[in-house]
Amino acid sequence: MKAVRLTMLVLSVLFIQACTCKTKPKAVDNVPVAMAGDILKDVYFAFDKSDLSAESKATLQTNASWLKENSSASVTIEGHCDERGTREYNLALGQRRAQSAFDYLRGLGIEDSRMSTVSYGEDQPLDPRSNEEAWAVNRRAHFRINQ
Amino acid sequence: MKIPHPCRRSASDVGFPNHLCQEVVIAMFRLVALFVFFPSLLFAQTDVFVRGSQDRYPIALPQLCLQDGVTDGNKLVPERISRNLVSSRYFEVINPNAYIETPGKCSSTPSAFAYSDWSVIGADFLVKGVISEDDDNIRLQLYLFDVPKQKLTFGKEYTGGSGQLRLMADKFSNEILRIFTGTPGVFGSKIVFTSRVGRFKELFAMDVDGSEVRQLTDERGLTIAPAFHPSGDRLLYTSYQLRVPELFIYDFGRRQSRAITSGKELEIGGSFAPDGNSLVTAVSLGKESNLVLMRLDGTPVKKLTSQPGVIDVSPKWSPAGNEIVFTSNRAGGPQIYVMDTASLRARRVSFANSNYCTSPDWSPKGDRIVFVCRSDGGFNIFTARPDGTDPLQLTSSGNNEDPEWSPNGEELVFATTYGKTGAYNIGVMRADGSGFRLITESRTDDADPTWGPVPVG
Is residue A110 part of a domain? Predict the structure, then answer.
């Protein structure tokens, strides 16, 4: 009996302990996940902004190099927002973000015909959680290589 | 120190009987541990949402007298009216188990009953009636009585097919609301909203109390920004079916959708004109989003805004049809503007001490607009006069977005994270912020609601 009670105690503690562990952000199934293995990296934006930071520009330069080396590849640039704010405003903002990346890549010599843009607004977050960490990775332009 | 075990281990032990005791003790331990690790659970949400107390009128709704024929309307009609009145938050329905009068008792005239039967159980108001059926045709008479004054307040007769029982009950409920609030109720109208289905978003419809939820679209994609046509027979919405957001019309009668725009530009949301003969939408290309007036088939008629590099979005008409309220970031961050559709001149109308205000809607009464501003660490709902004066903050907890007025301008429907699930759910409240009530309680982010008109006929 004592062993059973002790096991129950330990199990209860473990059960609750599991809930307090920080869980890794899970991708919403089938939504493109920017992972270490992704060829083209995401660029990130500040809240309600679509201008590119120095870091974003550096990422875009790397992306542009790959696109130049793989001249047959075409890419869809997706603009995304975090979940806060109005859906419709975020759709337009996402479009601006995609366009910012498009314009910069074009400035680096990538042809218009190889790129297209789309905005998903707040509706396809990379990280579905509701906190600053998740919001920061959701405010992004994502580069989807078309087959 | 050995803590005595509360469960008996043997017949001679002192304590609770063993067989259930172990489970109870473990459950209690888990409960305590839960509060130790999650202290916030101990504290209920104390932010007060409902402003002002509202005494509810006690009302009794007994079974109707079934005079002729066969129909369960004698029970369904008072049940439906009860549900409606309770959801209005103005009434409290007295439990039928307390009623003294024989259920369904028929009398020679509608007023031939004992008021004392009703005053003694605490009813201030009473609905009684007579129903008869003949070859599937219904004749329904309903009466509202004031019990303390011992008089008939009003009565109505309805005729129609048995399929119209619910419509008749809704109409009478709307009349009751008119007597008590001065404005007819909106029972029978529908709310359409978006909800996540797997990784997609689809459109759903429901009654104003959250019942009768049904899925409208099955596009297996992102289906968003629904807006009712003033006739209530169709919806404008935005879908990614054609790769980029385009406008679609969903027809309730045919249960079908068709695209009305296509091409490289993104069309995002919008709304129908009050006369139902045109629509305005936001067209996004490159870094701009402009308001464009369109015919119902998607043919562009006129560009209403054209500031380079500016996001103009979320247009809604005034009930008079000569002004449009919308969101614009022409001054830096998004704010609310009102434009005169003839001169196209726009002026800012959001002055809520916030650098981010979006999502406006114009009350059908014409005298107020509603919008959302970032404030108090979240997003909250504000109303103001259409010129921006008299701003009032109506919510202060969680994220509250996508507000729309009810068709009689008395209530607001919106999406809120306030509630148990933490996801977005649909809530309603009165125009002054009182009477808040969640009408969905899911984990699938119910949002983006639009409130349709009260059905006629």
Answer: yes
What CATH number has the domain bearing residue A115?
A: 3.30.1330.60
Q: Do A119 and B327 touch (CB under 8 A)?
A: no
Q: Does the distance separating the beta carbons of B37 and A20 come in below 8 Å?
A: yes
> Does pLDDT of B203 surpass 80?
yes
Query: What residues in A contact B38, CB-CB < 8 Å?
Result: 19
pLDDT of residue B421: 83
Full set of structural domains in chain B with CATH:
57-181 (3.40.50.10070), 190-451 (2.120.10.30)
Nearest chain A CA: its distance from B417 CA (Å): 11
The answer on pLDDT for B211 being more than 80 is: yes
What does the pLDDT look like over B253-270, one tens digit per residue? 999 999 999 987 889 999
**Does residue A49 lie in a domain region?**
yes
pLDDT score of B376: 84
> What residues in chain A have per-residue pLDDT under 50?
17-36
Check if A85 contacts B (Cβ < 8 Å): yes
Give, for A25, the enclosing helix (H) or strand (E). none
A90–chain B Cβ distance below 8 A for any pair: no
- B214 contacts chain A (CB < 8 A): no
Residues of B in contact with A29 (CB under 8 A): 198-199
Q: Which of B12-21, B162-171, B256-265 is predicted most confidently? A: B162-171
Give dist(CA B78, CA B59) in Å, integer: 11
Number of domains comprising chain A = 1
**A 96-125 residues with CB below 8 A of B?**
96, 99-100, 118-120, 123-124
Residue A95 contacts residue B266 (beta carbons within 8 Å):
yes
* Triad B343, B347, B351: Cα angle to 5°: 165
- Residue-number span of the structural domain to which A118 is assigned: 33-146
Using a CB–CB cutoff of 8 Å, tell me whether A8 touches chain B: yes
Amino acid identity of B275?
Answer: D
Residue A119 lies in a domain: yes
Helix (H, G, I), strand (E, B) or coil at A120: strand
Q: Look at residue A127 and give its three-state secondary structure.
A: coil
CA distance B356 to B199: 29
A50-to-A56, A63, A92, B337, B433 alpha-carbon distances in Å: 11, 18, 11, 22, 35
B283 and chain A in contact, CB less than 8 A? no
Q: For residues B100 and B118, what is the distance between their CA atoms, to the nearest angstrom?
A: 8
CB spacing of B313 vs A99 below 8 angstroms: no
**A1 close contact with B: CB closer than 8 A:** yes
pLDDT of residue A8: 64
Instruction: Please identify among residues 382-441 of chain B the ones whose CB lies closer than 8 Å to any CB of chain A.
Output: 399, 401-402, 417, 422
Within 8 A by CB and 6+ apart from B295, the residues are: B278, B279, B301
A13 touches chain B (CB under 8 A): yes
A3: its two tokens: 């062993």
Q: Give me the interface pTM, i.e. the ipTM.
A: 0.75
